[in-house]
């Protein structure tokens, strides 16, 4: 009986999400705040635990090898964590936001979370006209394409420079560059400051004791925000001169430097702050949580592709504030399919 109920719920969700693509394809350009307001987009990915048949071929092969190597029969044998039972869902978001110029001191103070920073913290403009989506059937390239389609819907003349927040993932950046060329659209790429700060901390903990690492990180963060990525790389390389690190620490530091160098052009924070651009991916991180983790990540859940895709679309509609408009549109489309155009206009 539970299986029958689950199948019925899945059918209802799939039927309800049937007109998702058509709804957004026909959506008019009626939610643009203005030409001087920032047009912002972001992309990310989040794993969803799925049934074995829903895994992509390389992941499925690794999962089969993992099961074959598992110890069976020994009740006391340590259980290995399942590492190959998830399929990545691509998440995207587009929104508009007023500019808010800030200084390096504002950011450093906020990161340190001192009592003074709580009192003097600048209230940032909230994202407006936000649309989020997620897909598990297609990959990051398709989701990034949808982001650029949404840019074109809001700015068909391509007169605005879109700001795209990224985390430095190679496949993500490749897809963004490919679609920007295809659409002939000017974009400003900003790498998430929180990701960069994580790597600064890796270097700080390798070069300093834990009690002194915070001071070093704060100093390098100020360098990054006032002088940019090139200055951060130079300061990090200078700090390594004469240092004898363990093999583990050396690997970690050079991994961080590799990240800095590969994303150097995306860390022009002095220019980003002066222009009032956002520098953190809070919107897309939140979308990953409330679109995926809060529902599809519940304990014990394993999804097939049609069921997961339908659930993602329904949750995206609600999170984007389009639930009521979509259901009016969906009911009209259902009437057309069932009774024809004459019955709908009667």
How would you describe the overall organization of this protein?
The structure is a single chain. Helix 4 (104-112) runs antiparallel to helix 9 and helix 9 runs antiparallel to helix 10 (229-240). The longest helix has 23 residues, at 323-345. By secondary structure, this protein is an alpha/beta fold. It is 57% helix and 12% strand. It has 2 domains: 2-50 and 85-192 and 280-335, Nucleotidyltransferase, domain 5 (2-Layer Sandwich), CATH 3.30.420; 195-265. It has helices at 2-16, 20-25, 57-68, 104-112, 115-120, 140-154, 170-183, 193-207, 210-227, 229-240, 247-262, 269-274, 282-296, 305-319, 323-345, and strands spanning 38-49, 86-97, 128-135, 162-166, 187-191. Strands 3-2-1-4-5 form a 5-stranded mixed sheet, sandwiched between helices. Helix 7 (170-183) links the parallel strand 4 (162-166) and strand 5. It has 15 helices and 5 strands.
Quick structural overview:
The chain is built from 15 helices and 5 strands.
Count of distinct structural domains: 2
Structural class: alpha/beta
Contiguous helical run count: 15
Order of helices and strands: HHEHEHHEHEHEHHHHHHHH
- Which CATH class of the largest domain applies here? Alpha Beta
**Strands side by side in the biggest sheet:** 3-2-1-4-5
pLDDT averaged over residues: 88
Which residues sit in consecutive blocks of at least 5 with pLDDT less than 50? none
| CA-atom Rg in angstroms | 24 Å
For the biggest sheet, the summary is: 5 strands, mixed
The CATH superfamily label of the largest domain reads Ribonuclease H-like superfamily/Ribonuclease H
Described by the principal axes of the CA atoms, the overall outline is flat
Instruction: Give the name of the CATH architecture of the largest domain.
Output: 2-Layer Sandwich
What oligomerization state is this entry in?
single chain
């Amino acid at each position: 009986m539970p299986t029958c109920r689950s199948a019925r719920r899945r059918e209802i969700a799939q039927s309800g999400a049937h007109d998702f693509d058509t709804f957004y394809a026909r959506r008019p350009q009626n939610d643009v705040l203005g030409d001087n307001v920032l047009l912002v987009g972001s992309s990310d990915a989040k794993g969803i635990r799925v049934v074995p048949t829903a895994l992509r071929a390389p992941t499925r092969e690794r999962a089969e090898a993992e099961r074959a190597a598992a110890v069976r029969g020994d009740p006391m044998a340590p259980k290995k964590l399942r590492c190959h039972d998830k399929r990545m869902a691509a998440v995207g978001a587009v929104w508009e936001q007023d500019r808010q110029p800030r200084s390096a001191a504002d950011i450093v103070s906020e990161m340190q979370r001192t009592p003074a920073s709580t009192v003097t913290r600048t209230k940032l403009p909230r994202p407006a006209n936000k649309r989020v989506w997620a897909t598990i059937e297609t990959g990051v390239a398709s989701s990034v394409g949808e982001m650029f389609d949404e840019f074109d819907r809001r700015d068909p003349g391509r007169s605005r420079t879109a700001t795209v927040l990224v985390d430095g993932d190679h496949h993500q950046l490749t897809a963004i560059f490919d679609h920007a060329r295809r659409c002939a659209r000017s974009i400003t790429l900003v790498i998430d400051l929180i990701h960069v700060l994580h790597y600064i901390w890796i270097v700080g903990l390798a070069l300093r004791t834990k009690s002194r690492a915070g001071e070093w990180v704060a100093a390098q963060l100020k360098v990054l925000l006032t002088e940019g990525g090139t200055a951060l790389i130079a300061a990090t390389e200078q700090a390594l001169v004469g240092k004898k690190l363990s093999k583990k620490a050396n690997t970690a530091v050079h991994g961080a430097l590799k990240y800095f160098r590969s994303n150097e052009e995306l860390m022009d924070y002095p220019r980003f702050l002066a222009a009032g651009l956002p520098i953190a991916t809070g919107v897309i991180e939140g979308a990953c949580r409330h679109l995926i983790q809060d529902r599809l990540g519940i304990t014990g859940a394993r999804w097939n592709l049609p069921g997961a895709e339908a659930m993602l679309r329904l949750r995206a509609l609600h999170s984007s504030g389009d639930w009521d408009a979509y259901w009016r549109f969906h009911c009209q489309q259902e009437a057309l399919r069932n009774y024809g155009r004459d019955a709908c206009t009667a």
